[in-house]
Amino acid sequence: MSREIGEVILDLKNVSLAFGGVKALTDISFDVREHEIRAIIGPNGAGKSSMLNVINGVYRPQQGEIVLRGRRFARMNPYKAAQAGISRTFQNIALFKGMSVIDNIMTGRNLKIRTNLLLQALWWGPARREELAHRAKVEEVIDFLEIQHIRKTPVGRLPYGLQKRVDLGRALAMEPSILLLDEPMAGMNVEEKQDMCRFILDVNDQFGTTIVLIEHDMGVVMDISDRVVVLDYGKKIGDGDPDAVRSNPEVVSAYLGAGH
Amino acid sequence: MLYRENGQFKTSYADDQQIFPIAQDRWLIIGLLVFAFIGVPLLVDEYLFRAILIPFLILSLAALGVNILVGFCGQITLGAGAFMAVGAYAAYNFHIRVDGMPLLVSFLLGGLTSALVGIFFGIPSLRVRGLYLAVATLAAQFFTDWVFLRVPWFTDNASSGSVSVSNLHILSWEIASPLDKYLFCLALLTVFALAAKNMTRCAVGRQWMAIRDMDVAAEVIGIRPMFAKLSAFAVSSFYVGIAGALWGFIHLASWEPAAFSVDRSFQLLFMVIIGGLGSVMGSFFGAAFIVILPIALNQFLPALGGLFGMTISTAGISHAELIIFGALIIFFLIKEPHGIARLWSTGKEKLRLWPFPH
Ligand SMILES: Nc1ncnc2c1ncn2[C@@H]1O[C@H](COP(=O)(O)OP(=O)(O)O)[C@@H](O)[C@H]1O
Ligand SMILES: [Mg+2]
Q: Which of A57, A259, B94, B165 could, after both became Cys, cross-link A76 (CB 3.0–4.6 A)?
């Protein structure tokens, strides 16, 4: 592999999150290194999605902090996270249903837009040039994900597997340095899974993007991730490279206990 | 020639990003504009201008404004009439209080004032949505009704808020005849419709639609809900405000606050629902429909009644109008939330495949 795993880029320290009486996360700490693929696994309801939501500021943890490239955030918010180069996909696809594939992916360029509303209303030189430049970038993403044939289709009409791909495309259009993927392969057939795996590896490899990945398919996780965090009932029960995690007795029993 | 996209290969993204990427659409629009500016004035009499075309143009502009907020940004408003009133009375005050103020500048300032008021009444949208937001915008309606009726300064001390304007001109063009008025409204509407089309295909339009479709995801990719929502309120109120100024100055020439009552707000909302939420074209369909329906019923219902030996009263006709509106709104909300515009584009899609539907 051409990529070199670097320093710690994202460090989570003693994060606890509760919804009323439900403890979603209890005192979780782990780190993510630059350029690595870091998986989070665990049974349903373990707190994996909540963890991603804490990282990009959708949820505010009651305790703990996030250190991103040496900067400490007691409270992250989604906008700040986006500015810091974090983008993500959603477990339950959260595309903009009324818009075409192109427009959905174009929204990923939003933070890079410089012209104001008036210039856009007039379709004036700079606004036009900017729009075309971003369109060219978005076409690169579309080529990369091999979805040229559906670029004008309203996303609501696409089958599930393609929607997941567009969701990834929107996140990639941000040119993120950290990409959070929440079960990108759930509900896919074998071929679609293979494609998705290839895209994830290519993103990581070609652009050096750091990836935090939630996935249920153990085969996939063990194949593509560098290190794995295991959550169960909101607690961390394992952390390390795939082989170490696989042979960790606590992990094995959590998975067997949960019927996996 | 058949209605086809085939053979029109786009060699650059610039071609593909054109305002109307399909050549036939482009020609249709150009043809319509030429007809509207040149053909209509040759064909139409004064009554049609005054009773149908001028109200249609102005209400189209207002509906476009409402559509930007409701259809594109997904925020509800029951206060459109209020923003028409603000636009009209603000333009009036600039017009009479500043000596030599050009008419167009009064209109723009009227629109900008309405935009500011719109931002103010849009602030609740950052916290609440749906029914609660509807109530907040309704407050704008009652507030402006009250202000223009009770605060004499805004209406130049006129009793019951009725004001009038005369001698309208732009440079040396005096806008007096129905034809002048029609052309003036048409020119403004053309400019603002193009601007709306541009906004909705650029970044700002995508921000509005993203907020409408999935606000959490929008925020996660770096769209600030506050900016997106308030800019939609501002642009929408600006459009509605300009329409209000046109309604007062050009269509009515003298008016009182009742011209912009809550009935107007509902009427504009119905237009965008029937015409098509989230479609620039739909705003025109909706306005045309609502302007023409009462007139058509007036002609058609008595004749229909005559066939069956009944006489239908004027009250009966206006009741029929309400019933038809009600039924249509329920139909569109349930069956086709994208309104006439969607029927139109489905039609075009079929046409694109015609005569080989597979
Ligand atoms: N927005 C929320 N409101 C209330 N409870 C929540 C919310 N999000 C997650 N939870 C709860 O937190 C726990 C962890 O959920 P989640 O992070 O979605 O798990 P996972 O992604 O591992 O399946 C669950 O008990 C869930 O019910
Ligand atoms: Mg989950």
A: A57
Phi first, then psi, for residue B170 (nearest 5°) are -120, 115
Q: Is the Cβ pair B17, A83 closer than 8 Å?
A: no
Cβ atoms within 10 A of the Cβ of A250, count? 12
**Confidence (pTM):** 0.92
Nearest by CB to B217, from A90, A122, A135: name it.
A90
Chain centroid offset of residue B239 CA: 8
AA identity, residue B197: K
Q: Which residues of B touch A174 (CB under 8 A)?
A: 221-222
Question: pLDDT tier at A259 (50, 70, 90 boundaries)?
Answer: very low
State in Å, rounded, how far the first CA of chain B is from the last one. Answer: 20
Inter-chain CB proximity B223 and A98 less than 8 Å: no
Q: What Cα–Cα distance (Å) separates residue A216 from each residue in A42, A95, A195? A: 8, 22, 16
Domains, chain B, with CATH or none: 47-353 (1.10.3470)
Residue of A234, A229, A237 lying closest to A256 (CA atoms): A237
Cα–ligand 1 centroid distance for B220 (angstroms)? 18
Judge whether residue B1 has pLDDT over 60. Answer: no
Tokens representing A22?
């439900």
Rounded to two decimals, the ipTM of the complex is: 0.93
Q: What are phi and psi of B235, to 5 degrees?
A: -65, -45
Please tell me the distance in Å from B306's CA to the nearest CA on chain A.
47
Could A123 and B202 be called an inter-chain contact, meaning their C-beta atoms sit closer than 8 Å?
yes
Contacts of B169 (CB under 8 A, 6+ apart): B103, B175
Among A62, A107, A10, CA closest to B219: A107
Q: Give the distance (Å) from ligand 1 centre to CA of residue A16.
A: 13
Q: What residues have CB less than 8 Å from B101, skipping those under 6 apart?
A: B94, B95
Domain boundaries, chain A: 1-85+176-260, 95-175
pLDDT in tens, A45-63: 999 999 999 999 999 999 9
Residue with tokens 């696409």: A158
Domain A1-85+176-260 matching CATH 3.40.1110.10: the answer reads: no
